[in-house]
Amino acid sequence: MRLDGECRRMLNKVRTLGAALLVTLLAALFSVETTPAAADGKLTIVVDPGHGGTDGGAVSADGIQEAGLNLTVAKMLKQELEGLGFEVILTREDENSLAATKKADMAARRSIMNQAGVDGVVSVHMNKFTDCAVHGPMAFYMEGSEEGAKLAKAVIDCITAAIGAPERLANPGDYYVIRESDPVAVLVECGFLSNSDDVRLLTDPAHQKILAKAIAQGVNSYFGGVNMLD
Ligand SMILES: [Zn+2]
């Protein structure tokens, strides 16, 4: 009787320990599946509106400069990304450049992109081409960057889904921002200022918002939608 009682007590102890272990394991598994990748629970994206200051970038036939449009779309993109739970840093928040010379301006952008805690970079631009029939958005990644290619694909896929046409693949390229960025980076050309239909779209706030939303969705999809869990 006494031995039986001790055996039962021991068995109960083993069962309790086993249950506690199981609960701990399940809790660990559960938290692995639901905790966002970043330690602070938020991923940080640098959004870079291209050009600024005396460097207006590409110009449309009727004189609309790329720099201003880049800033407008970039600010919308910031809002969309924040809505998805990302932390966002803009490289510039007004029409001014970051430094007096182009070289110093680009170096300043590089230090913002490469500061600690940045998880990804999106540079926003408007395109221009000699053939005025060419139109539509494009997404560039640094040649040879596997992660860049994945991010650019996710972004251009979301843009294509949002605007319908033209359908494009991500393009490899070699531009300062995507080459010099340590975090995964994409350069989005929102459309062509050399194409009159694109100029109409790119200056339309409704279309700018569609683009910003699609870019944000692409970024979120690249990062596995982690910020959508809570
Ligand atoms: Zn540009």
Mean pLDDT: 87
**Spatial gap, N to C terminus:** 54 Å
Cα-atom radius of gyration: 24 Å
**Tertiary shape:** globular
Total domain count: 2
Examine the coordinates and then state which fold CATH places here, giving the name of the CATH topology of the largest domain.
Aminopeptidase
| Annotation field: number of helices | 7
Roughly how much helix do the residues carry, as a percent range?
40-55%
Spans where pLDDT lies below 50 across 5 or more residues: 16-38
Bound molecules: zinc ion
Structural class by SSE content: alpha/beta
* Order of helical and strand elements: HEHEHEEHEHEHH
Largest sheet: 6 strands, mixed
What is the level-2 CATH architecture name of the largest domain? 3-Layer(aba) Sandwich
Structure description:
With 230 residues, the chain is of the alpha/beta class. It folds into two domains: 1-35; 44-224, Zn-dependent exopeptidases (Aminopeptidase, 3-Layer(aba) Sandwich), CATH 3.40.630. The chain is 48% helix and 15% strand. The protein is built from seven helices and six strands, in the order H-E-H-E-H-E-E-H-E-H-E-H-H. The chain has helices at 2-34, 66-83, 102-113, 146-163, 176-180, 196-202, 205-222; strands spanning 44-49, 87-90, 120-127, 138-142, 171-173, 184-192. Strands 2-1-3-6-4-5 form a six-stranded mixed beta sheet, with helices on both faces. Helix 4 (146-163) links the parallel strand 4 and strand 5. Helix 2 (66-83) crosses helix 7 (205-222) and helix 4 packs antiparallel against helix 7 (205-222). It is globular and about 45 Å long. It starts with a helix and ends in an 8-residue tail after the last helix. Mean pLDDT is 87; it is low at 16-38. The structure holds zinc ion. Zinc ion binds at residues 50-51, 57-58, 66, 125.
